[in-house]
Amino acid sequence: MSQFFHQGSACALPVNHVDTDQIIPKQFLTGTTRDGFGDALFFDWRYTEDGTPNPDFVLNKPENKGVSVLVSGHNFGCGSSREHAPWALAQFGFKVVIAGSFADIFYRNCINNKLLPAQVDEAALQQLQHYCATAGNQLAIDLAQQQIVLADGRRIAFNISSTDREQLMNDCDFIGIAEQHLDAIDRYETERAGQAPWMLPKGYCV
Amino acid sequence: MGMTLYEKIYQQHKVATLNEHTDLLYIDFHFIHEVTSPQAFAGLHEAGRRVRNPVATLATMDHNISTQNRRIDGAGEISQQQLEALQRNCREFQIPLLDITHRDQGIVHVIGPEQGITQPGMTIVCGDSHTSTHGAFGALAFGIGTSEVEHVLATQTLPQQRAKSMCVQIDGHLPASVSAKDVILAVIGRIGTAGGTGYVVEYCGEAIRSMDMEERMTICNMTIEMGAKAGLIAPDEVTFSYLQGRPKAPTGEQWQQAVRQWRQLKTDADAKFDKTVVIAARDIRPQITWGTSPEQVMALADRVPDPAQFKEVEQQQNAVKALEYMGLIPNTPLQDYPVDVVFIGSCTNSRIVDLRQAAAVVKGSRVAEHVRALVVPGSAQVKRQAEQEGLADIFKAAGFEWREPGCSMCLAMNDDIVLPGKRCVSTSNRNFEGRQGRAARTHLASPAIAASAAIHGYLSSHPIMTGEGLV
Ligand code: SF4
After folding, report:
1. Is B309 exposed, middle or buried (0-12, 13-18, 19+ CB in 10 A)?
2. Which residues does the UniProt record annotate as the domain Aconitase A/isopropylmalate dehydratase small subunit swivel (chain A) (predicted)?
């Protein structure tokens, strides 16, 4: 395996507060499986009203074909909790989203889908947006070092908690981890039933 | 050092420590709906897992249903497939479901409290960001993604990292014309849509204490719009009297015992918040959003802001873009803009108190000719009560559409869509681009302001604006 979490080309969407309604609008939330969301990514920005691709939108530019790293602004992924947002990003081909900050639920959904949310400071963000706009825009992600490596060798630090980093580096099954604590969960439930019996869910007669 | 309410609830639910930063937290109750659950059930299937405690989850149909009728095919074939998937999954995994025709069906965040399921000191999650609503009861409640829904179904727990804590204190008494919606919009305007990221917010102060439970729910509901993980209000007598007698609330000896424990659920006097924001209630005026983010909010009586008035370049750019999308000209009074649609509903403002406030404004008037106005009650129970109280008749006589319960035009997944370029005053919680329909222009406001806009056909000049208070 390569030393890098991912290597690929990047494009910039220098917008702050990109919300999950923008990432994937509600009319695409009717599915019952986890796939088929890639084509609807950024739908209202990506397509014109008659359904043809909007040539001005960054993902439709020929030079961005095959792009796999998205560099955006602050508060990326705010709004609705829909996990369809990271699904759509991943299915489009993104492996990494770099932003000044992320909304909490979106961030967690990324980790759970092996999409790397890399948080960088303002200066780094500017540098990366600039890099995407001009240079050959290839970059690599050194997850162990928490660095973004540009084609000219420059390295830019990003933040991620050590726990989340581990989880992205190793293929871990979160439910499986919790299941290792089944005894503790059982114990907790028994104690609870003694101390706060009204908390036991009564179920619903339907 | 003392503990905050958040820390107490967190501590009480810790089942195991997973690593330096992460704990396994027990989840007392879990709500699900048709849109964010199917893939979670599929995941359980794939892994051959079961639902650990089916009665700790309650399913409802709300997001994707028609509110014109109570038919499962009412919003079309694709929506029907999703609703049927929920029925199948609930049957297979034995999860109770409030089906579309059930007498207690409604928006997930309306029915939990209404049924007395939401109680102080609980941890509550749902695959929906507005789960923060339940924090009004002093429950730690937050939205989760579908992978986490699967995790909760399988284990009744979630891995969590501790959040920071923020205190938002609203001192003094609110002017008579100011509602809970105005308060939370003003708070978001102050803190910003990312200002709460990484925090759990506890609301306190006299103005919050004097609110009823439904107003408190409006406050906690929109906490997610400042990016916070959850909103909390310490339980008090108002909370207890709301809960007493509700179907799932404790009774008899257990009620006494519960109340005794609930009284302990408050932030200790010597606890420290990571951040505190203090706002004087008397400074808050009726609010309305002018842009495409809930933080782009102004007093209704003010003029549309000039982008140049913002300090940060970024805010200026955002304002230019938002004003263009919204079709507004800087420095003009909002009253000059005609309204096309008025939506009264959503988990923010579709409870009985909200409908009473709106009906008080509407009573005896007619919806303006050019306006399409709808009222969508939050639950079947709210609908019945509003009909009994005569509120439905007031709305219908005025020319409002009186609908079946559901999310409806809040996210416009069904056929309740605002058409491109149309201006909508909505009591919901998000004014993002395209939220209510492609190119739709959303102004978030209170039920009273929305009702007033429906009657006047403009972004209005009702007594609420001049501060004469609600009728
Ligand atoms: S009413 Fe709106 S915000 Fe509330 S749960 Fe439904 S879609 Fe979400």
Report:
1. exposed
2. 8-121
Cα separation, B441 vs B424, whole angstroms: 6
Q: How far apart are CA B49 and CA B420, in angstroms?
A: 45
Contact status, residue B156 vs residue B142, Cβ threshold 8 Å: no
Give B462's pLDDT tier (boundaries 50, 70, 90).
low
* Cβ of residue B428 lying under 6 Å from some atom of ligand 1: yes
Of B98, B122, B157, the CB nearest to A178: B157
Task: Give a three-class secondary structure readout of B348-370.
Answer: CCCCHHHHHHHHHHHCCCCCCCC
- What's the B221 CA to ligand 1 centre distance in angstroms? 10
Distance between CA atoms of residues B450 and B341, nearest Å: 10
**pLDDT per position as a tens digit, B344-383:** 999 999 999 999 999 999 999 999 999 999 999 999 999 9
Counting atoms of ligand 1 from 1, which one is nearest the CA of B348? Answer: 4
Right CATH number for B290-465 from 1.10.150.20, 3.10.50.40, 3.30.499.10, 1.10.10.60?
A: 3.30.499.10
Q: Is the pLDDT of residue B243 over 70?
A: yes
Question: Is B126 annotated as a binding-site member?
Answer: no
**C-alpha distance across the termini of chain A, in Å:** 53
| The CATH number, out of the four listed (3.40.920.10, 3.40.50.150, 3.40.720.10, 3.20.19.10), of the domain defined by the range A6-160 | 3.20.19.10
- Ranges of each domain in chain A: 6-160
Enumerate the H helices of B367-446 as residue ranges.
380-388, 391-398
Q: How far apart are CA B383 and CA B380, in angstroms?
A: 5
State whether A79 and B432 contact (CB < 8 Å): yes
Binding site membership of B130 for ligand 1 (Cβ less than 6 Å): yes
Cite the beta strand spans of B78-184 per DSSP E.
Answer: 97-98, 123-126, 140-143, 157-161, 164-171
Average pLDDT over every residue of B241-247: 97
Q: Do A161 and B314 touch (CB under 8 A)?
A: no
Short-list B67, B100, B74, CA closest to B412: B67
* Residue B470 one-letter amino acid: L
Q: What are B94's two structure tokens?
A: 């034995």
Which of B32, B5, B28, B172 is closest to B95 using CA atoms?
B32
For chain B, residues classed under CATH 3.30.499.10 are 5-275, 290-465
Contact (CB, 8 A) for B120 and B81: no
Could you report the per-residue pLDDT of B259-282, keeping only the tens digit for each? 999 999 999 999 999 999 999 999
**Which residues between 167 and 196 in chain B have a beta carbon less than 8 angstroms from any beta carbon of chain A?**
193-194
d(CA A102, CA B205): 30
Contact, B126 vs B145, CB < 8 A? no
Superfamily of domain B5-275: Aconitase, domain 3 (3.30.499.10)
- Residue B207 to residues A179, B168, B283: CA-CA distances in angstroms? 44, 11, 12
Residue of A nearest to B126 (CA): A81
Instruction: Give the relative orientation of helices B352-362 and B447-456 as an angle to the nearest 10 degrees.
Output: 30
